[in-house]
Amino acid sequence: MKSCMDIMLTRRSVKSYKPDMPKREDIDRIIEAGLAAASGRNMQASVIVAVTNKEIRDRLSRDNAAIMGASADPFYGAPCVLVVLASKIAHTYVYDGSLTLGNMMLAAHELGLGSCWIHRCKEVMAKPEWQEWIKSLGLEGEYEGVGNLVVGYCDGDFPAEKERKEGRVIYVD
Asked: 106 lies in a domain?
């Protein structure tokens, strides 16, 4: 078993997926890691919506692409999208949602799955039809989209490590 540090140092964003849906227990495990993320004042403002329904996944993809001004699938063919929403009641909601996404990326990597954080969730979820969708899920209050985590089996090799920039650490002794 790899150490936590090994997982953090070897995780990469995957941008090509097989169409096969990951096992439900793996998705559940990834979500569990997301729900365990640190949160400001332990308010646990993040909510994870696991989208495994192809029709809804494809609608999310189309709306995300439209905001980006593209026609290609911004989800890279991944069959599962974990939409991270956060309650605006917590003043740290964006940070909390970001930590949720980070934990889930690491968990996916530990399970041998690829993942990639896809932006524009805020803009997509702000649209009236998606606000209605959020309400239809039983969520009350004001929620903002923080990010989409696409998850699936990597189609091909996992991406190689990229060189890290120098000069990003400063000690003040």
From this structure: yes
Rounded to a whole number of angstroms, the CA Rg of the chain reads 16
Q: In the chain, which ranges are E strands?
A: 46-51, 80-87, 114-118, 143-152
Residue 173 CB partners (closer than 8 Å, separation 6+) = none
Whichever domain contains 42, its CATH number is: 3.40.109.10
Q: What is the 3-state secondary structure (H, E, C) of 22-63?
A: CCHHHHHHHHHHHHCCCCHHHCCCEEEEEECCHHHHHHHHHH
pTM of the prediction? Answer: 0.96
Lowest mean pLDDT among 1-10, 22-31, 91-100: 1-10
Domain count, the chain: 1
Is pLDDT at 135 greater than 90 in this prediction? yes
Residue 33 CA to residue 129 CA, distance in Å, equals 29
3-state secondary structure at position 122: helix
